Structures are given as structure tokens and as C-alpha cells.
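Quick one:
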Amino acid sequence: MTMKGQETRGFQSEVKQLLHLMIHSLYSNKEIFLRELISNASDAADKLRFRALSDASLYEGDGDLRVRLSVDKDNRTITLSDNGIGMRRNEVIDNLGTIAKSGTKAFLESMGSDQVKDSQLIGQFGVGFYSAFIVADKVSVRTRAAGAAADEGVFWESAGEGEYTLADITKDDRGTEITLHLREGEDEFLDAWRVRNIIGKYSDHIALPVEIETKDEENDTTSWEKINKAQALWTRNKSDISDEEYTEFYKHIAHDFSDPAIWSHNRVEGKQEYTSLLYIPARAPFDMWNRDTKHGLKLYVQRVFIMDDAEQFMPNYLRFVRGLIDSNDLPLNVSREILQDSRVTQSLRGALTKRALQMLEKLAKEDSDKYQTFWKEFGLVLKEGPAEDNTNQQTIAKLLRFATTQSEGAEQTISLEDYVSRMVEGQEKIYYITADSYAAAKSSPHLELFRKKGIEVLLLSDRIDEWMMSYLTEFDGKTFQSVSKADDSLSKLADEETEEQKEAEKALEPFVERIKTLLGERVKEVRLTHRLTDTPAIVTTDANEMTTQMAKLFAAAGQEVPEVKYIFEINPDHQLVKRVADTQDEAHFGEWIELLLDQALLAERGTLDDPNQFIRRMNQLLTA
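Output:
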């Protein structure tokens, strides 16, 4: 083999870490390397088919796409070759020298090698080609892109350590050939029958023929035997497909190592004709929150692969859904521009969104434990739904889960249907509180009245919750009400005022006026409240004012935050308030009121503008 332009390059640092994990940490399920390499060959064939729609010469007179596998016991090698799209030199560097996913490095650093004992953690992102190093101590690649000249072939080789070799070669046929030099102890993969069984397990659902080399020792001849059905799984009847086949197909398209939580295979005929196969993963990918990460469904038109990650068919809050759609109604030369403008696309998006939500409803209804696992992984993403999808808002609301004052611990397990079923007599609204943490929400003084009345309150502490609740205004005919906002329904919940209380309030009117004079424009209003039992004072916001949590969201996003004007509510039955009300010294009175306001602000916001002054004032009053 003649090689030109040979050079040695270092791997991207993330690749080095990944290869180290591959080689040293995968003790089980080694056979997945075959699935990954065959999946890559299938993708290469799909891409060639699509490119050839507009340029048939790319087939170079050979339109029978397939992947072939041969085992050489004497040289301890396995070779996989395909006649798909192939790669040019720059594509080899991009695809085999780097992991083109920002965020990979942080993920790898968060995974100590002691932590990674099998493929489950690594399976959170598709390792693809690098899985070859699970069993091989050297991997060689020969490739040529479809449409390129024979002398534009590329050779790549690495021992899976710090670097790889790259060179130009002559390769007569297009496609990619990968040779794995097996390390000692991996002899099971030199057994042709063992390899045949693995491929039978992993590749039956792939629409690409997988052929294995068979040798006739007597006649000294070699032939290629097809060992899979090579029929696209989604085109078969549901009754003919086993759960294992559905599961394996999911792993093939999602490059995931875990089984999916649930799937839905659906064929629609009539005004629109399409087949969809959607999966809900059991685990979140490591890069789910990375804005650059591509997501979406695989798009086929009349069984011809068009594109990966067709995001137009699934809203952003369902970006974790994996699967494919095969449509008869889109043109074969479909482009992203056509997809964005097409009414057919909009109609398909609506139907697929409903299908995905139905899958989640089914999971929640039939297996609450499994749904709870899903919620832990993807709940934060689903919370984007009420803002993004007004049409399905009530369906999404049913799927949301919350921690409440009646649930055990911070785990979000309570549905809105559960909450509504437990509403007490006379309760008009669904009450909630937003805070920086579960502990801050659960111990908020705003909840004192609700504990006293036995009314359940939703405890919201995720960053997204305040934004979500600004869109989610009602459920099952009941409106939502923040307990930290002033509202007539909260006043109604407080006990009817007795004559004694009314007289006491009248007597305290000068006290309230003193506070108003002292604080001036710093607060919107000063009023007495009977909502509190153990706390001397709280701050609330008016119904049309921005809430504390929303102001924090604006600040975190770098936006200019308007000043939040609070209502200062005083508990006239608290001993400390009674003591302050009797204080005649104006300076002393002012210090006490400032301390009560700071306490209320600290409970509401979690921070103070000047914490040192608060400490100084408190110490001074304690020693007075």
C-alpha cells in the first residue's frame, strides 16, 4: 500500500480521556463495538442514497449498498467494510480526531474512572467509532469519499493512546474499511459463529444488508453470506416486531446503551400518509442543556433517508424524544427551508407532538415508578412546555410533578390532579410558592396560614418554575395563586376578624402610620395581617408587580431589573410587634422597624443589600 503525505497528529484531549475510559473501564457488554460500527456503516449508506438523489454518478456504477465483515484468526483481526459515502482527509480529521460535541470535556471530567465500571455511564453519549478500542489495541481505517478520485483515499491508524497517523493512499472502491487488531484476551471475537450471533442480534432491524465472509476450505473459495433481514424495521407490521427488536433499533438510532422507557409505532393513512416510531429514553444525555446540541427525529421520505436531527417535527420542550418519521407527503429533495415553511410539516409536528404526550400519559398512568424516573431525568425540560405550547398546555400540566407541603421530602411526586382532589372545602385556587431552594420554600413564613388551615401548597424551587407559572394560569378550571402575592382569596382564608381584633387594629393605626412615615417610598404599603402565627412581619408583592423570583431570573439573564416595591405586612399578635409598638424613642423604634423589614426581606429574597448593617443592627438591639 503506497502512502503519501504521512503525518502524525495528537488527539483532542477529550478523545484521549474517552479512549482511556474505553480501554480501562468497560468490563461488560464489550460486544457493543460491533453494533456501533455497523450503525456507522448504515448511516454512511443512508447519506450516500440521499446525496445520489441529486447526483447519481456518486454510485460509481455500484448501487448495491452493504456492509461486509470478515474475521482473520491468523492475524487476529476483524475487518468491516462498507460502500457508503466515505470520507475525505478533512472529514477523517473531524470525525476520528475530535468529538464534535462541546460539553464533552466537562462531562468526562465529572466521571472518575472508579465511577465508570460498565457501559451505562459512557452510554449517555454516542461513542460510535471509538468503541473499537474496547477490544482492539490498534485500529486501521482506509476510506475514500464517493465521487473522489482513486488516489484521494485516506489512511488513518491509531493505537488508542495519544496520537494517530494520517496518510494519502490509493483506494479503488469508495467507502470505508475498518480493521481492528484485537488485543490479547479478546479471542471470542475471532470465532466467526460468535460474531455471526452478535450481528444477528444487533442488525436485523437495519435496512442495510450485513454480509459475513464464509470460506470453503475444500474448494478454496470465499463467498459473502447475508445474515440480516435488511428490511427497515418501521415498515414491518407491529405484530411481527418483538420488544427486543424495538429496543435494539432504539439503541441503533439513539446511540444509547440503555433500554428506552417507552415507544410508539404508528402508521397513518388518509389525508396524510406517514409512519412514525417514537421513543422516550430512560436516561438524559449528558449534553441535553447544551444549546448547540442537535436534536430531533430522523427524517425519511418514502424510505429514503433525508436527514438526522429534523427538529421541525418536535417542539423544543420534547427535544429528548428520539425516533424517526417516514413521510409520503414531502418531496424527496426536501430541504430545511421547505420543512420550515411546509403546511404538511406543521401538521406532522402537531400530530407527533400529541403522540409523544400520549406516550408520557400512558407511562404515568400504567407505571408510576417508571414515570417518576423519567421525571427526574427530563422534568426540567418538560417544564418549558406550558410556555411553548399553548395548544397542549393542559395535557402538559397533567404530566407535571411537584413537591408540596404534604409530600415527603424534596422529590417532585405530586400531580396537579392529586392536588385538586385534596383541595379543602371552600378553597378556590391552587396555591404555590417559588423560592431558591426546597428548604427556603418549605420554611417560608408565607405558609403559616396554610399550615393552620390544612391547605396544601406547591413548593417550587427550580430556576424555571417562576417563568413556567407566568404562563400556566389555570388547571381544571382552578386558577393558580402565589402565596407571596397580595390577593383577596388569601384575606378570605384568614379567620374572620373578631370585635376585639378590630379594636386592636384601630388602636394600632398610629403605629402603622409611624412605620409609613419612617419607610416612605421604600415600600409600596404598610398593613396589618392575620396570616401569620410565628413570624412578626413579611413582605408581599402586589398582584400586578414583578415577583422576587422573576426579578432574579431577569438579573441572572443580564437584563435590567425594575425595582420590586414590596407591601410590608405586620403581625399585630406577635409579642415583638407589640413591644415595638410601645417604643417611644424614635431612634430605637426606627432600628426595630428596619430590623423587622430586613428579616422579612431576607426570608423573601434570601439575600440583603447590606448584610453587615443587618448584623450590626441586630447585635445592637440584642445588647440594648
